[in-house]
Write a structure and sequence with these properties.
CATH class of the largest domain: Alpha Beta
Helix content: 25-40%
Largest sheet: 7 strands, antiparallel
Bound molecules: guanosine-5'-monophosphate
Order of helices and strands: EEEEEHEEEEHEEHHEEEHHH
Structural class: alpha+beta
Distance between the termini: 19 Å
Strand content: 25-35%
Radius of gyration: 18 Å
CATH topology of the largest domain: D-amino Acid Aminotransferase, Chain A, domain 1
CATH architecture of the largest domain: 2-Layer Sandwich
Number of domains: 2
Shape: globular
CATH superfamily of the largest domain: ATP-grasp fold, B domain
Length: about 260
Amino acid sequence: MKRGKKLYEGKAKIIYATNDKNLVIQYFKDDATAFNNQKKTIIEGKGVLNNRISEHILLNLSQIGIKNHLVKRLNMREQVIKLVEIIPIEFIVRNVATGSITKRLGIEDGTVLKEPLIEYCLKDDKLGDPLIAEEHIFAFDWATKKEIEKVKKMILRINDFMIGMFRGVGIKLIDFKLEFGRLKVNDKDEVILADEISPDTCRLWDSITDKKLDKDRFRKNLGDLIPAYTEVAKRLGILHEQSNVSVVNVTKLSSVKRKRK
Ligand code: 5GP
């Protein structure tokens, strides 16, 4: 698969064209951003870990019938994905209240929700991804009622599966963000899961200690982000006896190789 021109660069990923018009390459960067890009840095090895963790989760989800954009992982930082038209909504799923909802509504941090709560945010960095009502989605034609019904069913299935998967390895799935896209199949649009699922897009707490194993380590200046993401990867059985050092070393090795070319 040949990497073509850059089509889009986001905060944590780059999308490149390929020689197949239906497929693109998703490259995971080491950039970490928070608070609508006001806080940013580079954390060496983060992209490598997110690539592996997201691949693992999306492969498992396709096995339970959740169609998604992943075709295959190419290397440490890249995966081939299906080109979709992204629905401009961030779907936030909450099992436990923390983060923005606690500030917005004065809910006590750590409150366990009776049922999973789905929130919608408009995907617009300039506006700071504002929270919207479901009615806004239909009023402004961001998605159809049929699409949102299908997405909601998929979200609840994804949430059930991921809660169980993480519970099995001693991690609580607190909340996460999903994105969906439209894929043309026989001239009809089909909605499939897109983007990534990783500690960048989920809140993951150790089941016993509540230690944060996600991007809040960066947002809240807790440090040790790479050891936390490595811990998630190890518990999921993705990185066996490799240590965090080896992830960073692989990153360094690949950058040395690139420089030599
Ligand atoms: P909150 O609304 O509390 O800030 O975030 C809720 C959940 O969605 C968290 O797991 C958070 O990581 C994820 N999330 C929300 N918006 C974004 C975003 O723009 N980028 C990423 N990576 N995650 C997000």
